[in-house]
């Protein structure tokens, strides 16, 4: 029974020691530069590739941000007062590693105007985002290297008077786009001194048990 107990203790020590060497997950976020007025200036969102010396890349999260802002002008051309609603905004689309992600950003402001009245409104910046995730090895390979990766970005905008009747209106809505890229990777940490001690203790106990069995 004593030999059996020592064997179990040694095995347990080795199990704990080896278990301590499990891979550790890390994340590294990278922010791209911003493309201003994307509809008129489509381009590329470039960011640094993942350095494979850091560990094993397990997933990439690409979050596309769409910021709209600008002005709206409207005039009530009816002979009586009315409330008008304008639907305006735009979509940004990025192509990354053969896949696309579209971030829409639309607003529906309303204006109550007397007959013949006009209004100019400044639209404060509003930001929306959408995430595209990659975790298949065939997709991840495109993000690994010592250079940069470029995702294409373009945008379209629109405007429409959705309620209120007879009005003259115009919007000057701009869209800016940028992305946040997060690399998730695993590393195998160096075991702590206590781990080595437990491993040696386990091996030593198993050696003692083995020798005693031979002498018996």
Describe this structure in words.
This protein has 216 residues and is α+β, with helices and mostly antiparallel strands. It has 2 domains: 1-21 and 189-216; 23-187. The protein is built from 3 helices and 9 strands. It has helices spanning 2-19, 137-140, 193-215, and strands spanning 24-31, 43-48, 56-76, 82-96, 99-107, 110-113, 118-134, 148-163, 167-187. Strands 2, 4, 5, 6 and 8 form a 5-stranded antiparallel beta sheet that branches. The chain has a 4-stranded antiparallel beta sheet with strand order 1-9-3-7. Helix 1 (2-19) runs antiparallel to helix 3.
Characteristics:
216 residues, alpha+beta, 5-stranded antiparallel β-sheet, 4-stranded antiparallel β-sheet, disordered N terminus
The DSSP helix count reads: 3
Backbone structural class: alpha+beta
Rg on CA atoms, Å:
31 Å
Percent helix, as a range, is 10-25%
Average per-residue pLDDT, rounded, comes to 86
- Give me the strand/helix succession: HEEEEEEEHEEH
Task: Set out the fold topology.
Layout (H helix, E strand, L loop, with lengths): L1 H18 L4 E8 L11 E6 L7 E21 L5 E15 L2 E9 L2 E4 L4 E17 L2 H4 L7 E16 L3 E21 L5 H23 L1
Helix pairs in contact: 1-3
């Amino acid at each position: 029974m004593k030999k059996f107990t020592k064997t179990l203790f040694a095995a347990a020590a080795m199990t704990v020691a080896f278990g301590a060497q499990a891979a550790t997950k890390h994340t590294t976020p990278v922010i791209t530069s911003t493309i201003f007025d994307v509809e008129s200036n489509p381009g590329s969102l470039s960011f640094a590739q993942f350095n494979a010396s850091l560990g094993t890349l397990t997933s990439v999260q690409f979050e596309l941000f769409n910021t709209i802002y600008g002005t709206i002008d409207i005039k009530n051309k009816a002979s009586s007062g009315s409330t008008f609603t304008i639907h305006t905004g735009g979509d940004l689309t990025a192509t990354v590693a053969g896949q696309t992600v579209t971030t829409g950003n639309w607003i529906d402001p309303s204006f109550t105007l007397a007959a013949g009245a006009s209004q100019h409104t400044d639209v404060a910046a509003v930001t929306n985002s959408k995430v595209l995730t990659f975790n298949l090895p065939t997709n991840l390979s495109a993000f690994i290297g010592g250079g940069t990766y470029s995702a294409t970005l373009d945008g379209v905008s629109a405007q429409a008077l959705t309620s209120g009747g007879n009005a003259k209106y115009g919007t000057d809505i701009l869209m800016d786009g940028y992305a946040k890229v997060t690399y998730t990777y695993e590393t195998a940490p160096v075991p702590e001194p206590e781990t080595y001690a437990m491993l040696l203790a386990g091996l030593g106990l198993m050696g003692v048990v083995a020798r005693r069995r031979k002498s018996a």
